[in-house]
UniProtKB/TrEMBL annotation:
It comes from the Bacteria. It comes from Pseudovibrio japonicus. Its cofactor is Mg(2+). The lineage of its organism: Bacteria, Pseudomonadati, Pseudomonadota, Alphaproteobacteria, Hyphomicrobiales. The keyword Magnesium applies. Gene3D superfamilies: Farnesyl Diphosphate Synthase (1.10.600.10). This is (2E,6E)-farnesyl diphosphate synthase. The keyword Iron-sulfur does not apply. Keywords: Isoprene biosynthesis, Magnesium, Metal-binding, Transferase.
Length: 301
């Protein structure tokens, strides 16, 4: 990672951390009755445990590309991160992927208990829609409604949750390349696609620009999944921050298992080249997004 990109990621991640800490604090919001201490503690454990914050950072940078940068963007990005963190809590549960380590420490259900982890995930999911509907996100209620509806579709049955179902159903079953690409576009790609698209929507970009950033998000969503599959195959668990080799152990269908490591790496390079081409019209303003795309493909954790 370049020094410049590391600086941007660190600065934006710190801003997001501060915003999430505030939003998931003890202060009861209007129409809430109370915030139970143990549930709040588990939510904070899941959401404030570090991580790369790639999805919210992509949203912030996509909005910045069109000159849009304010506190409302951080609130919207925090909503997206709450969705992502809820999905990790639930994915780690014994009934799902049964993982004991996440980001180098015990998963939420190990640090607390299964029931608390389920409720923490539920609460992170629901607070996300509270946040995305906040007037601070955008003055136009039609934009907030669009962001909320698209977030629901990216994270629900036709997106992330549906993709996780397809992934579970693929264990110990042969899947075609088309089927694998479909489930990965939903499970992993949908929220990354949303991050880039929502940033452009927040910035009141043109529909052409929104479409271009949407395609950029689709490409790097696939790149992220391919890199993740390679890490599961070849990565060091100490560096990755979670158990590796679990896809093969669970008999999960991945593009790496179907195409092989060399062809997968070739496709990754092609994807990043296409992502660069999409951002050419924006010149130097798109440098951070371009570098982020390369980082996603080359990451080691």
């Amino acid at each position: 990672m370049s020094v410049a990109l590391k600086s941007v990621i660190t600065e934006t991640a710190q801003s997001l951390e501060e915003k999430l800490t505030s939003l998931l604090g003890e202060t009861v919001r209007s129409e809430e009755l109370a915030r139970p201490e143990r549930l709040l503690e588990a939510m904070n454990y899941a959401a404030l445990s570090g991580g790369k914050r790639l999805r919210p950072i992509l949203m912030v940078e996509a909005a910045r590309l069109f000159g849009h940068e304010n506190e409302g963007t951080l609130v919207a990005a925090s909503a997206l991160e709450c969705i992502h963190c809820y999905s990790l809590v639930h994915d780690d549960l014994p009934a799902m992927d049964d993982d004991h380590v996440r980001r180098g420490r015990p998963t939420t259900h190990k640090a607390f208990d299964e029931a608390t982890a389920i409720l923490a995930g539920d609460a992170l999911l629901t607070i996300a829609f509270d946040l995305i509907a906040d007037e601070q996100v955008h003055p136009d209620p039609a934009i907030r409604l669009r962001l909320s509806q698209e977030l629901a579709r990216a994270s629900g049955i036709g997106g992330m949750a549906g993709g996780q179902m397809l992934d579970l159903a693929s264990e110990h079953h042969d899947r075609t390349e088309t089927e694998i690409r479909q489930l990965q576009a939903m499970k992993t790609g949908a929220l990354i696609r949303y991050a880039c698209r929502a940033g452009a929507i927040l910035a009141d970009a043109s529909e052409d620009d929104i479409a271009r950033l949407t395609r950029f998000g689709e490409i790097i969503g696939l790149a992220f999944q391919l890199a993740d599959d390679l890490l599961d195959l070849t990565g060091d668990a100490e560096v990755v921050g979670k158990a590796t080799g679990k896809d093969a152990e669970a008999g999960k269908a991945t593009l790496v298992s179907l195409l092989g490591e060399e062809q997968t790496r070739q496709e990754l390079a092609q994807l990043i080249s296409e992502a660069d081409e999409l951002l050419v019209p924006y010149g130097a303003k798109a440098n951070t997004l371009k570098t982020l795309a390369r980082y996603i493909a080359d990451r080691e954790s």
